[in-house]
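Moderator note: this is an archived Q&A kept for reference. The question asked for a predicted structure of one protein chain; the sequence and the answer are reproduced below.
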Amino acid sequence: MLDVKTSLYNTLSKKIEEFVPNEEGRVGMYTCGPTVYHYAHIGNLRSYIMEDVLEKYLRYVGYDVKRVMNITDVGHLTSDGDTGEDKMLAGAKREHKSVMDIARFYTDAFMEDCRKLGIKKPDVVEPATNCIPEFIHMIEVLLEKGYAYLSGENVYFDTSKLAQYYVLSTQNEEDLKVGVRSDVDEDTNKKNKTDFVLWFTKSKFENQEMKWDSPWGIGYPGWHIECSCISMKHLGEYMDIHCGGVDNIFPHHTNEIAQSESYTGHKWCNYWFHVNHLNTKNGKMSKSKGEFLTISLLEEKGYDPMTYRLFCLLSHYRKPLEFSWEGLDNVALTYDKLFKRVKNLSEEGPVDETAYAVYEKRFAEALANDINTSSAITVLYDMLKENFTDATKRKLVVRYEEVLSLGLTRALEAVPEEKVDSELSAYVERMLEERKAAKKEKDFARADEIRDELSAKGIILKDTREGTVWEKAN
């Protein structure tokens, strides 16, 4: 383990705390996964990038991390307040496909976006539809303990049984409506306004494609029960860190805590890590507005996905981040310069192990301060300016990339510009000599072939009185 103390902002305590896992040297980490009814927009992906950095930082300093993520392929309605249509069914209707076809397609698309952005696949990725028995068992226990009730053929969690429901926020119920992504219709089956559905039955959703038998009728689970059960299935009843976007704080994460701690009878998760919104000038990016940006769209416009990852890393995860094309263009230039700088590091000289150890720790200490990625990138730049061997710098770049994952190891594998220029010059001069000899022999066809061959490689020839000169095309 590196000798650094990690501090994280904990949404539960609303302050920065020293991170101390339940079990020394080991971390159980859960991240809310996508609802796979559409492509992920770059706002969604900001959360996954920052969660990826958190996981990789913990590994960097020496923790054994097990990260679990769900795939929501059933149960998430068009309103986070348990009203409206299942998002998966809405996606299937939109594209005239089955729900499972939609789930498979958009799960694959999400994983491909993560790959392009350097996001590590979690150790466990579990679709909700794999865990129906676990959902039913937890609901049965909550009913037995008196924390749930049956009404209108649905099963609800009774929030009035809790001494404190809004544990993740100091806001009141009316204020927290801003966290709900659609207007909430009143559910007359509820005893209390804040109660939420654990299990829906066929009484409400006759056209629901995915349904299972249960003690309460044929139906399907509510959205909130998924993460509680999937996390406990793979991490046990005590969890270190739960991650998600700030819009998950209420009602999703609030409801997770309510049902999980009622089920276990003890505190469930110690640290809550929430990533703020990506905004545009028109407000928070949202699929419901029909104006969201995807990684594929950025690629179509000529941007390397790593540019967007750097765009996110240059801002702190707890601050809202405003997206603009001008801002992305500026980061693209920054990334290109950084890539070239790393690319031109030679392999010459010994590794200065003392300098390496100092900068390895400096990088860790920057991130230990509530995952301050901007400070960590400053350490990278400071290191590249230092007066020690390129071999030392190359080794540190490789080490930093374990967390930053900006594709800079591609630069190390590339041929430095100086070497490219030297080899290119030698090649062009050889071809010019061959072309000169061909023209002397009046083999003009071969001379033209050489010109075309060089042109294909971006070399422009100009015949002058002093001889043939060449330049690289812009």
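Archived answer notes: DSSP finds 15 helices and 16 strands in the chain.
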